Amino acid sequence: MAQNTNELMQKEARLGLFSGIFAYFIWGLFPIYFKLTERVPAIEILAHRIVWAVPFGLIIILFRKQLKEVMSALKNGKTLALLTLAAISLSINWGLYIWAIQQDQIFQGSLGYYINPLIYVLVGVIFFKETLTKLQILAVILAGIGVSILTLYGGVFPWISLTLAVSFTIYGVIRKQVDIGAMPGLFVETIILLLPALIFLGWLQSKGQFQFQTEDLSMKWLLIAAGPITVIPLLAFATAARRLRLSTLGILQYIGPTLQFACGVYYGEAFTLAHGLCFSFIWLAVAVFSWDAWRHREGLKPQP
Fold it and tell me: Is the pTM above the cut of 0.70?
């Protein structure tokens, strides 16, 4: 009996590990998708991502029998208000990231998701009066040095990276206050954003600027695919989150920005000495922070 229980736990852990790797792998390859669709303006892609995520998300919600949780959230004023704020933060994060990829700023996007866990730490200290370990303090200092080098010697203030990190931190902090699952929460957020997205697409059509209407069939399918590529990795992450320790998820989350960084190299973005020094300090900060989290079995907040 004990052996069967142990085997079941190992099977569940393996499923969680593979699901987590799959989720972060897909997130890490997002630059490829946004490069394939770059002739469509970033804000229209954002609108498509919202619109097509709704029907695909509904299929998942019905399959997982989570409609009751969704309806409960829609009827609760406080929950709906918090999810509205979360949806606004998420849309800013999504929209800026898409625009950054189109502007050949993949390195800045990657940097943003590397420093995101460190921003969480600072928010915890400033707003929730949390205390830092010595290694966490060291990690934050190292990250600060890296950003300062890129700003002072590279002549580039990494506003894209910082905005991505801060907006996603705000999203994560808000979602932490809401008692709702990952998939139902995302579905409610996309419902909240659906009407503005549809109005915007309708406005584009009235101005003759709706590119979905004029693009070839392959691009149309790519834009429709924005729905499943938004929902599927989140579903995989939800599967992983239920089966893995948060410390393990915290380590896995760096698969995403690492693959994004590799995409930046592949697409030939300019990588200066300042970039090299900045990322060296960031990677060192990540190593220190991850080691400290692993020692204390503390979780790092991962991306959606």
Answer: yes
